[in-house]
Amino acid sequence: MEETISLKELFDTLKKRIILILSITIAAALISGVVSYFVLTPVYQSSTQILVNQAKDNQEITKSDLDGNLQLINTYNVIIKSPAILDIVKEELNLNFSTSALNEKISIQSEQNSQVVKISVEDESAEQAALIANKTAEVFRSEIPDIMNIDNVSILASAEVAENQSPIKPNPLLNIAIALVVGLMAGVGLAFLLEYMDNTIKNEEDIEKTVGLPVLGLVANIEEGNEKAGVQKNQNTRRSNVGSNTEQA
Questions:
Q1: Half-sphere exposure of 237 (CA within 13 A, CB side)
Q2: pTM, whole model, 2 decimals?
Q3: Phi–psi pair at 232, nearest 5 degrees
Q4: Is residue 199 helix, strand or coil?
Q5: Whose CA is closest to 52, among 129, 113, 135?
Q6: What is the secondary structure of 175-196 as a DSSP string?
Q7: For residues 159 and 121, is the Cβ–Cβ distance under 8 A?
Q8: Tell me: the pLDDT tens digits for 46-88?
């Protein structure tokens, strides 16, 4: 027998489990907020920019020069994060983590058809992030002539630590919003799962669905019948007592 679920049944299920759904949603938001504000360590980002320019003194820059510089940028992006550069950065800054860990902190970004390369560093300390970014750019500029026999790199902007700089992650508000959505979805899903697994019979409609036969009649609740009989008996007793008192008078 094919079963169909109406919108009213869906609404009734949500209404019946509304406390469960709200509890899960609020709990998810609270946990996310506590973790974001008090557990996760803030991470800061600092960036510096370098310019790739192969123009020679007193000579006009041609299109071939620009195309050559743009082709070099992809190579430079790899060289910047290579041990040839990062080993020197680690040594000069006396960092207490490995070169591979330093590599993970650094990201390189270059705009399409642009000669500007952006070096970004993420670290738990805003000051150290700026220090690593600036040192990486300086070491790269000083080492690239020996590596590629080309001196065409200059630093456009150095990384600086802003006053009251905000971390880039975690983002507590975003995390809480995501937790609210996930908690709501989990609560609704759990509500429907509990409703699906509940195979108890509560009314005549459940009987019809279970046996596939219509209900022809209902048996009155015995306790309700006893209560009504008791009320009727008490009424008759009071009437008898009133009659007896009248005759005696």
A1: 6
A2: 0.68
A3: -65, -40
A4: coil
A5: 113
A6: HHHHHHHHHHHHHHHHHHHHHH
A7: yes
A8: 999 998 875 555 455 566 666 666 777 888 889 999 999 999 9
Question: 72-76: long-range contacts at Cβ-Cβ below 8 A with a sequence spacing of 24 or more?
Answer: 72/148, 72/150, 72/152, 73/110, 73/115, 73/117, 75/148, 76/52, 76/117, 76/140, 76/144, 76/153
Distance of CA 95 to the CA centre of its chain: 32
Closest to 69 measured CA to CA, from 150, 156, 133, 134: 150
Quick: pLDDT tens for 82-105. 999 999 999 999 999 999 999 999
Higher pLDDT pick, 219 / 183? 183
How is residue 238 written in tokens? 């009071």
The stretches of the chain forming alpha helices (DSSP H) are: 7-16, 18-34, 63-80, 83-93, 99-105, 126-148, 172-197, 204-211, 222-248
Per DSSP, what are the bridge partners of residue 135? none
